[in-house]
Structures are given as C-alpha cells and as structure tokens.
Write a structure and sequence with these properties.
The chain is α+β, with helices and mostly antiparallel strands. Helices cover about 30% and strands about 30% of the residues.
C-alpha cells in the first residue's frame, strides 16, 4: 500500500474510534472512486456496519464516509438524505450557489481551479455541478462562509456566491449520447472499448492500470463480465451505463446499447 493510502486509512481508523468512544457521528474528507474502494474494503475487513457514503445527493461522484452511532437509525431508501432533511444541524455539508453574468461559459475546471487557488484542498470540495450561468458546489460547512466571502472570480468572470440549504440542490440533467454496438462478449474490456471509442488493447490496458470502475468498485480483470444496468466509470474520461443487452447477431455477436455521459 502506498504512503498516500496508508494516510487515508489512518484517518478513517481515527474517525471510527472517535465515533465509538464519543458516541457521535464522525466523517471523513471527500474521496474519489479509487479511494472509495480502499475505504470500503477496509471497513468490510473490520466488520464496521454503521457507516454510509454521502455526497449531498443520490449518485454523487465524490463522497464522504459517515460513521454513525446507534441512535442514528436509517431506512434503506435515501436513508441519510432523509435523515438530514429532518436533522439539518447534523449535516456536515453545505451548498454554494454560484451565478455570474457574461457570455463566456465557465467549465468545471474553471470553477475548481479558482477554488483551489484560494488555498482550499481538493478533499474539502465535493461535486461541482455546472449549469447555465453558474454552478452548485458541495463543500463542508466549516469553510462555506470563507468561500462566500472570497470566491469572487473564475477565469476573469465576476461571481456571486451564496450559501443555500443543501436540500435546495437541483441536479442538472447531463448531456448523454446513446451508443449502439455489437461485441464479441460482455467482457469488461469489450465494453470499455465500445463506450469510450478505444481499441480492445487500449481498453484492456486501462483496466489493468486500475482506471476502470464498475458500480463504484475498481475492476482490474479485463475478462470481468458486465451485466445490464452496470455503471462503468473510466477515471478521467467519464462514465457510461450498459442500458440494454440484446440478442445475438447472425455472426454470434451481442447487440448492446450504452448511454455515455458527456
């Protein structure tokens, strides 16, 4: 395990101990998909049951992990989201609503770069949801007021930054494209190649390097078989969903439909 991952696990261990000893909710910083896999494996090995991933909304890309005392009882469907709706004071996350005037369209990179230039570490920032003439940024309450006062510009555009209740978040509809293709089998490398317009060898190489995640879990075997509904993430490239598996063609290939997020 590399030093960075050792530090990550040490921090998670501290949060588990604090939850158990102080009988209160504790939480980590934001982590990416690769780190999520490491954290969940560690928690499963320790048989830690009272934890939940949370990023401010369902299907968030970047999450924190919450360790829960026994008095926090969650129902299965949107459990932690519903809990925070009735107990907003317990929610460690805040929502920043950003707007601006101007003709240029700002990108995710524009917003993130400007936030980081203020000395904020990446692990303090969750998803940045870009929309027309602005974005919503999920972050921690303890730095939210600092950002309201200081996050004033991105790519030379003047910004208006407001603090908003996180339940007001409206997740924008992402642009998607439907990909119809045929594959020799439902192997992971075949699906990666089809979803991201790669050769089979390049797709296999990406899998072996640990860049591919299926339903949030890192997969490093090109022969792993995909199922209908699986979400495929290529770190740094985007994500796709295997929407439909059809019948075999006359040439013994399998018809598939993928939905690629742009």
């Amino acid at each position: 395990m590399i030093k960075e991952d050792q530090i990550l696990i040490a921090g998670i261990k501290d949060k588990i101990c604090q939850c158990n000893e102080q009988y209160r909710m504790t939480y980590s910083l934001f982590f990416d998909t690769r780190q999520r896999n490491i954290i969940e494996s560690y928690c499963k090995d320790l048989k830690v049951f009272h934890y939940v991933l949370y990023g401010g909304y369902e299907d968030a890309e970047r999450n924190i992990i919450l360790f829960l005392p026994d008095y926090v009882l969650l129902k299965e469907n949107n459990g932690i989201i519903n809990y925070f709706k009735t107990n907003p004071e317990d929610n460690p996350l805040a929502l920043l609503h950003i707007t601006y005037e101007g003709h240029r369209e700002l990108t995710h990179r524009d917003y993130l770069g400007s936030v980081l230039s203020l000395g904020i570490k990446r692990e303090k920032i969750g998803d940045i949801l870009v929309r027309e003439k602005g974005c919503d940024i999920i972050t921690f309450k303890d730095i939210a007021n600092f950002l309201v006062l200081n996050f004033e510009k991105a790519a030379n555009m003047r910004l208006k930054t407001e603090l908003s209740p996180i339940e007001n978040l409206v997740v924008p509809e992402g642009k998607r494209v439907e990909i119809k293709d045929t594959v020799a089998s439902l192997r992971l490398d075949n699906l990666v190649a089809s979803a991201f317009s790669l050769s089979r060898s390049k797709a296999s190489e990406a899998v072996l390097k640990g860049s591919i995640f299926v339903n949030g879990i890192q997969k490093m075997k090109p022969e792993f078989l995909m199922k209908q509904g699986d979400k495929l993430v290529f770190r740094g490239k985007g994500k796709s969903i295997l929407k439909e598996i059809g019948k075999e063609t006359k040439k013994d290939r399998i018809f598939i439909i993928l939905e690629r997020y742009l």
